[in-house]
Design brief:
Helices cover 8% and strands 37% of the residues. By secondary structure, it is mainly β.
Length: 166
């Protein structure tokens, strides 16, 4: 017959410290909780690269966001968008924006899911522009060939040919 005394069962192997009755916390519970805390840090990696701007939201004189693309098999395909362009950057960009020529491959109204799969569906009015190479900063999350999060406009690269961007 086993007897109970001081938090252990006589005759049974002892596993670790005993704390009196079952379920009683250790005397220094605050210290025990502190030792169990996990620290988690979320790291987002951003990279800069060149893409093609093929449209803007807003107008040629007051662009809101750039709609970004990349040439695949000779066709300009939408891959994402920028966050709203800051006023200073927009002023520098306006002289470089030219109206699109006939035959631009994009429609003037698109679903927001075309450039951002994870937002509620809504129609977005576009102002088509002549393809312009731009440098963006974006995180490396790419889903189905599109940039998952809005990119940050860094600068225009008018010297680079948009057809060379792949």
């Amino acid at each position: 017959m086993a007897t109970v005394g001081a938090g252990t069962l006589h005759g049974a192997p002892t596993r670790g410290p005993t704390f009196g009755r079952q379920g009683d916390p250790p005397k220094n519970a605050a210290l025990a909780r502190r030792e169990m805390v996990q620290i988690r840090i979320k790291v987002k990696h951003r990279d800069t690269f060149e893409v093609v701007a093929g449209a803007v939201t807003g107008s040629l004189t007051q662009p809101g966001e750039l709609i970004l693309g990349r040439y695949e098999d000779g066709e300009l395909r939408i891959i994402g968008r920028t966050a709203p362009i800051k006023p200073g950057a927009a002023r520098a960009l306006v002289p470089l924006l030219q109206p699109a020529a006939e035959g631009h491959p994009w429609p003037t109204v698109i679903s927001s899911r075309t450039y951002d799969r994870f937002q509620p569906k809504r129609e977005t009015q576009l102002t088509l522009i002549a393809p312009l190479t731009v440098e963006i900063s974006a995180d490396t999350a790419v889903v189905g060939g599109t940039i998952r999060h809005a990119a940050r406009f860094v600068r225009a690269r008018p010297e680079a040919d948009p057809r060379d961007i792949r």
